[in-house]
TrEMBL record:
Cysteine pairs bridged by disulfides in the record: 38-118, 71-76, 124-326, 203-235
Subcellular location: Secreted
Superkingdom in the source lineage: Eukaryota
Name under which the protein is recorded: Peroxidase
Species in which this protein is naturally found: Phaseolus coccineus
Amino acid sequence: MSPLRVEVTLLCCVLVVLGALPFSSDAQLDPSFYRDTCPSVHSIVREVIRNVSKSDPRMLASLIRLHFHDCFVQGCDASILLNNTDTIVSEQEALPNINSIRGLDVVNQIKTAVENACPGVVSCADILTLAAEISSVLGQGPDWKVPLGRRDSLTANRTLANQNLPAPFFNLTLLKAAFAVQGLNTTDLVALSGAHTFGRARCSTFVDRLYNFSNTGNPDPTLNTTYLQTLRAVCPNGGAGTNLTNFDPTTPDKFDKNYYSNLQVHKGLLQSDQELFSTTGADTIDIVNRFSSNQTLFFESFKASMIKMGNIGVLTGSQGEIRKQCNFVNGNSAGLATLATKESPEDGLVSSI
């Protein structure tokens, strides 16, 4: 399919989904939701993630990404955690997720620890949201009071996962459209993309930029030539595409503003990264420049956008349920182990964050 047809198709999908998405800007979420019922929940989640990140520093970025991949598909309801069963078609096998998402086992560890302290109280959706904030802090990034009170979905939606999650080869028009579907604006797009300040990606997600960008037989002209040679050394032409490289070549495991400084010198790893700065006349360029020169501004914008994203399509009150285990709805354990331990040890296809 030609790039133009892909773009037109995506934009048509945007219009269809936009009219059906259950936004919840007035949802009754509160940072003190578990004050009486599970006051230790934040410290429990933090301790599990802190221990895991000692041996796997990449996990911090992976948990933020897991939250993102959940919220962009029927809202922040932990639908991404549901395994295949006779009645559920798991989002874990959608193209942007299969052999790609990481951290499912860590979420299960957290859920077990939380259930031991406060059985039947804390939702998996809230655990994902808390894990994202704690991962930011442990990566030396910003902290914020996480609004809580989400409940867990009874369903998953692989079709929406394939449709809604932005791809690493998206241009700026498609990126903006994908975020608009979720009620997120251009500032949110640039701020949330800053999560690529740490983490890794497989060669397969950007190798075309190195050798055959847009079927030209040449590299992406927006790539820094020195950086191009560095990436080619990691990702040989015709290779397996499984090698990993850092999103941020300067401070790969630290949450900071260097993501934006890298874009300014044309060292964005994915096309969807560099598009924010290299698209001629784009309104994102000024935002990149401001975030690059002012880390406090970036952190404040990231916090606001994460809270905004975390409020998409949430279930509250009597909606959904509090799952006893995150991989399946209550009363149906079929398929519990089929995908919970099937995640890839490496990042595969990645989204825009």
